[in-house]
């Protein structure tokens, strides 16, 4: 009798993510990547941050959008919940596509693949 094939999953790569409270761009193993909030992760792959109250002319916002446009990867931040965007840790690094930046500030994209998990 033939033995059933067993699939061995490759363990998820673990990365060190370093950022200070309020950072919109963080360091991941020596590379700087933009951060998105798990609060705005909707559905299976959809992400839409309304960026309510953001100053679209501020350097911080412009730098953030520029970084999103320069890469296809983001760090997902785990928020504390209950309407708070305060960081409770990081989920990991994800690949995305279909970036949309509304002139009024909102940012949307499709998350396509988890590339790495955050070290605790």
Compact description:
This protein is mainly β. The chain has one helix at 59-70; strands at 14-15, 17-18, 25-28, 31-37, 41-42, 46-49, 73-81, 84-101, 107-118. The longest helix has 12 residues, at 59-70.
The helix/strand order is EEEEEEHEEE
Question: What radius of gyration results from the CA coordinates?
Answer: 16 Å
The helicity comes to 10-25%
CATH topology: Archaeosine Trna-guanine Transglycosylase, Chain: A, domain 4
| Content-based structural category | mainly beta
Mean pLDDT: 91
The main β sheet shows up as:
9 strands, mixed
Task: Describe the protein.
With 120 residues, the protein is mainly beta. The chain has a single domain (14-118), classed as Archaeosine Trna-guanine Transglycosylase, Chain: A, domain 4. Helices cover 10% and strands 50% of the residues. The chain is built from 1 helix and 9 strands, in the order E-E-E-E-E-E-H-E-E-E. It has one helix at residues 59-70; strands at residues 14-15, 17-18, 25-28, 31-37, 41-42, 46-49, 73-81, 84-101, 107-118. Strands 1, 2, 3, 4, 5, 6, 7, 8 and 9 form a 9-stranded mixed β-sheet that branches. A hairpin with a 2-residue loop joins strand 3 and strand 4 (31-37). The longest helix is centred in the middle third of the chain and has 12 residues, at 59-70. The chain starts with 13 loop residues before the first strand and ends with a strand.
Can you lay out the helices and strands and say which pair or pack?
Elements: E1 14-15, E2 17-18, E3 25-28, E4 31-37, E5 41-42, E6 46-49, H1 59-70, E7 73-81, E8 84-101, E9 107-118
């Amino acid at each position: 009798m033939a033995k059933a094939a067993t699939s061995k999953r490759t363990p998820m790569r673990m990365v060190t993510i370093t950022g200070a409270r309020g950072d919109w761009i963080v360091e991941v193993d020596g590379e700087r990547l933009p951060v998105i909030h798990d609060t705005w992760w909707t559905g299976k792959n959809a992400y839409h941050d309304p960026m309510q109250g953001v100053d679209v002319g501020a350097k911080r916002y412009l730098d953030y959008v520029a970084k999103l446009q320069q890469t296809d990867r983001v760090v997902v931040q785990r928020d504390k919940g209950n309407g708070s965007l305060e960081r409770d840790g990081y989920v990991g690094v994800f690949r995305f596509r279909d970036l949309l930046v509304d002139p009024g500030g909102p940012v949307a994209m499709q998350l396509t693949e988890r590339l790495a998990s955050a070290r605790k």
